From TrEMBL:
Domain CRAL-TRIO: 286-461
Subcellular location, record wording: Membrane
GO terms, molecular function: lipid binding
Transmembrane segments: none
InterPro entries: CRAL-TRIO_dom, CRAL-TRIO_dom_sf, CRAL/TRIO_N_dom, CRAL/TRIO_N_dom_sf, PATL, PATL1-6_C_GOLD
Organism field: Gossypium davidsonii (Davidson's cotton)
Name recorded for this polypeptide: CRAL-TRIO domain-containing protein
Pfam annotation, one family: GOLD_PATL1_C
Keyword match Transport: yes
């Protein structure tokens, strides 16, 4: 989806040609919907687009529909830490440190736990008790100090009180000295005692206040240590961050999307987590949004490497009723976007995020009958999905396969290709209508490909695990396919029974014999060939049995897959004959199975 800054989102969406060029991911978490184009802008753009397309018309209209343009050479990197390069391991460790710091500080949008009410009540009662204790311990203030002053006694104020008291004592002593000169020594002693007593009494509150401050700091320090806020717990796609080894696989996706630039990867991760919370992803996954769009996008089967395959069918929007119902205005496009995100989320949560597991998806984008760039509403819906997916779902696509690609899409792709990164282009595969099935078979086995795309996967008696054989039928040639039948090599008596036949007034006897039922499925891509089937027994005195006379199967047949069966009572083989009268090679697909049965 987003590997580098200029990489277009290649997860879970089909990007129409005019919208393919990648724009740098925005730093903001929430993306505003694109502004509607004015009529003047639309008029100005259309002639330019048409001119560019017409320039490539003669080059690509015929050739590109017959060829697969790109090979999809992208090779998926390992998700095991031991397989990483040294600089990649270092980047992973640095990112994990940043994530841990963010979790500790609750930077991903989590709320810090509230202090219990009991602790609040205890804290407030302790504060009140402490305040009362401080008030009771304070010495009586001199009358010269205003009683309304609640501020703590400053050192300058204490000195001022001391001076006034000492002066009063001295004045009293001096008056007494006029009458009693003999008591001079006592007067001096009294003055000294007064000074000492006043100094000690005034210093006592300051010492107590200082001691209280120290004990308060100790008490607060102890409380801070006791009430350490636990780290934030964050999960993304069902994987808790930094909880186990699966988290490394998630972080590697963000690192690879930003070319192992740690700070950029961290910003992307943080923005993704914040966006998921604001968008309400966890709640969205549980909502029922209906199944009206089940044919627009669906998961079906796996590729040859085990990746789940997602099919995007944009031709469904040719249905005017569906188009008007789902994307004709902004509100409907937002609902379509929510459905698309929900579909992707459910698909991702089925992936295996363990190291070495399958944690990416293969996208098959069917452009047959696609409305094209003329549909402004569809373009807007695609743009909105593109921005969200490229910024919040990095490295979730192993390959992007575009099938039934029209000529105009190939022409425009040629023009925008220089603006795409090599990593992005290595994941893209394009095929015209005549090569779509062959292209799919390069990456997905025929038993896993839906019937509508040339495969044999459908709701039948054959499972997707039963292998399909692929053969190329040469031009102007016949090809035969043989199914050996070895389960039955003779009539074997299972049981005998007798009953009275009133018509013949006699007993009738019968045998239950062991037989074999052979079933097969056969398909020729594009048909336009003749098909026939017969059973050839291995016994010398037995005769061949025609199962299906040779008949021509047209290319436009409504029965793309021939399903047939034949009950065999002796050893032999079923022979299918395919005659290709055309001058082109044909792809033949078939599979068969047999199981014992009984017959009278």
């Amino acid at each position: 989806m987003a590997d580098q800054t200029k990489n277009p989102a290649y997860v879970d969406q089909v990007v129409l040609a005019p919208d393919v060029p990648q724009q740098p991911p925005a730093a903001a978490v929430v993306k505003e919907p694109p502004q509607a184009e004015t009529d003047e802008e639309s008029v100005n753009q259309k002639p330019v687009d048409k001119a560019l397309v017409e320039e490539h018309l003669s080059k690509h209209r015929c050739d590109d529909q017959e060829n697969v343009l790109q090979s999809g050479s992208f090779k998926e990197e390992s998700t095991r830490v031991v397989d990483l390069l040294d600089n990649e391991k270092k980047a992973l460790q640095q990112l994990k440190q940043l994530v841990q710091e963010a979790l500790n500080k609750h930077e991903f949008g989590g709320q810090q736990p509230e202090v219990p009410k009991e602790d609040d009540e205890k804290e407030s009662s302790k504060e009140e008790a402490k305040d009362e204790a401080v008030i009771d311990d304070e010495p009586p203030k001199p009358e010269t100090v205003a009683e309304t002053n609640d501020a703590p006694v400053k050192e300058d104020s204490i000195n001022l009180v001391e001076t006034e008291v000492i002066e009063d004592k001295v004045a009293t002593a001096a008056a007494g000295s006029d009458t009693v000169e003999d008591d001079g020594a006592k007067t001096v002693e009294a003055i000294e005692e007064s000074i000492v007593s006043v100094s000690s009494s005034s210093a006592q509150p300051a010492a107590e206040a200082e001691a209280y401050v120290e004990s308060e700091d100790e008490r607060k320090g102890g409380k801070v240590e006791d009430k350490v806020v636990p780290p934030e717990e964050i999960s993304i796609w069902g994987v808790p961050l930094l909880a186990d080894e699966r988290s490394d696989v998630i972080l590697l996706k963000f690192l690879r999307a930003r070319d192992f630039k740690v700070k950029e990867a961290f910003v992307m991760l943080k923005n993704t987590i914040l966006w998921r919370k604001e968008f309400g992803i966890d709640e969205l996954v549980e909502q029922d949004l209906g199944d009206d769009l089940s044919k627009v996008a669906f998961m079906h089967g796996f590729d040859k490497e085990g990746h789940p395959v997602c099919y995007n069918v944009f031709g469904e929007f040719r249905n005017k009723e569906l188009y008007q119902k789902k994307i004709s205005d902004e509100e409907k496009r937002q609902n379509f976007l929510r459905w698309r995100i929900q579909f992707l989320e459910k698909s991702i949560r089925k992936l295996d995020f363990r190291p070495g597991g399958i944690c990416t998806i293969v996208q098959v984008n069917d452009l047959k009958n696609s409305p094209g760039p003329a549909k402004w509403e569809l373009r807007q819906a695609t743009k909105q999905a593109l921005h969200l997916l490229q910024d919040n779902y990095p490295e979730f696509v192993a390959r992007q396969v575009f099938i039934n690609v029209p000529w105009w899409y190939l022409a425009v792709n040629k023009m925008i290709s220089p603006f795409l990164t090599q990593r992005t282009k290595s994941k893209f595969v394009f095929a015209g209508p005549s090569k779509s099935a062959d292209t799919l078979f390069r990456y997905i086995t025929a038993e896993q490909v839906p019937v509508k795309y040339g495969g044999l996967s459908k709701g039948s008696e054959f499972a997707t695990t039963e292998t399909v054989t692929e053969i190329t039928v040469k031009p102007a040639a016949k090809h035969t396919v043989e199914f050996p039948v070895t389960e039955v090599d003779r009539f074997s008596l299972v049981s005998s029974f007798g009953q009275w036949d009133p018509m013949y007034n006699a007993w009738g006897f019968g045998l239950l014999v062991q037989a074999c039922l052979v079933r097969w499925e056969v398909r020729v891509i594009g048909w336009g060939v003749s098909y026939g089937a017969e059973f050839v027994p291995s016994g010398e005195n037995s005769y061949a049995v025609i199962i299906q006379k040779a008949r021509k199967v047209a290319a436009s047949t409504e029965e793309p897959v021939v399903c047939d069966n034949f009950k065999v009572g002796e050893a032999g083989k079923v022979v299918l004959t395919i005659h290709n009268p055309s001058s082109k090679k044909k792809k033949l697909l078939y599979r068969f199975k047999s199981h014992p049965t009984t017959s009278h």
